[in-house]
Amino acid sequence: MLVPNAANPELLAARDWISTHLGIHFPNEKLDILSSRLSSVVAKRGTPSVEVLMQEVHAGTPQARLDLAQAVSTNHTFFFREQPTLDFFKKEIVAKTPNTAPMRIWSAASSSGEEAYTIAMIVSGIRGTTSLAPNVAILGTDISQRALAAAEAGEYDLSALERVPGDLRQRCIETVGPKRGKIVEGLRQACVFRRMNLATPQWPLKGGFNVVFCRNILYYFESRTQAAVVNHIYDLVVPGGWLITSVSETVRNLDTKWLPIEPGVYRRAP
Ligand SMILES: C[S@@+](CC[C@H](N)C(=O)[O-])C[C@H]1O[C@@H](n2cnc3c(N)ncnc32)[C@H](O)[C@@H]1O
Fold first, then answer.
1. Is 68 within a domain?
2. What is the tens place of the pLDDT at every residue in 123-174?
3. Domain membership of residue 15 as a residue range
């Protein structure tokens, strides 16, 4: 394992690359976490050292970059996370949109899909159907291929699904094993998952989103990247469209055009 010391040049060089290219920042007090994650990538890949791994990363070897991105990102997520903002989404956005109106929603750091399917379940509850596509389209993007594969499968432990409110659980989840449940087909069809790095300046998206969820990701980024990300999202939402962040991530201090509505909720001027 690399010595997690703020004077270790190899570790600092890896930190700089990760910050510049993935937007994820490891401050000095988290260098021990970075060090152990780099060591685990090296061990898993059978690469001789972190130095060799970083040489492959610099050379642009796709699998090396993918393995590194996966190891340094934290995929922790769960169904119906942060109820107050979800209540706002349900009552002030979905319920006030005509039932037949198209809705394009983006979960911009979707991890293993819990956020995208939570959104789908809330819309399904208001619209009274699990057949949402093609009128409702939910895009989930993430940098981690492993997380995206889990999202696409749409299968979870029943213990994780206990967070889903009872009425929605009955309607939106089918049991597929003694301890496993699967999101029903109608909701899965409304959700598409793609790999995308938020920290790159160009995104392969055409915009027109009504709502973007960008939660529990901004705080990994330095404020310059945070501003670039939320400003880019601004350009991709329709006038009057919404940005939902985690309540602990504030967009107010950044130089943006987003109008603060309530903690974790921002709006593009109509
Ligand atoms: C803590 S999870 C948040 C998941 C979900 N949004 C939530 O609030 O529960 C953060 C996710 O961001 C992803 N991530 C980290 N850096 C990223 C980047 N530069 N571009 C896209 N996704 C990234 C990670 O892979 C991880 O799945």
1. yes
2. 999 999 999 999 999 999 999 999 999 999 999 999 999 999 999 999 999 9
3. 9-72
Pocket test for ligand 1, best of 33, 72, 142 (most atoms within 8 A of CB): 142
Whether residues 63 and 87 fall in one domain:
no
State the distance from the centre of ligand 1 to the C-alpha of 99, rounded, in angstroms: 30
The β-bridge partners of 213 are: 107, 244
Q: How many CA atoms lie within 13 A of 9 on its CB side?
A: 0
Helical spans, DSSP H, in the chain: 9-22, 31-45, 50-59, 62-72, 83-88, 114-127, 145-153, 158-161, 166-172, 185-190, 223-236
Q: Strands 237-244, 191-195: parallel, antiparallel or unpaired by DSSP?
A: unpaired
In a domain, 208, yes or no: yes
The answer to the question of residue 78 being in a domain is no
Is residue 4 domain-resident?
A: no
Q: Is 118 in the pocket of ligand 1 (CB under 6 A)?
A: no
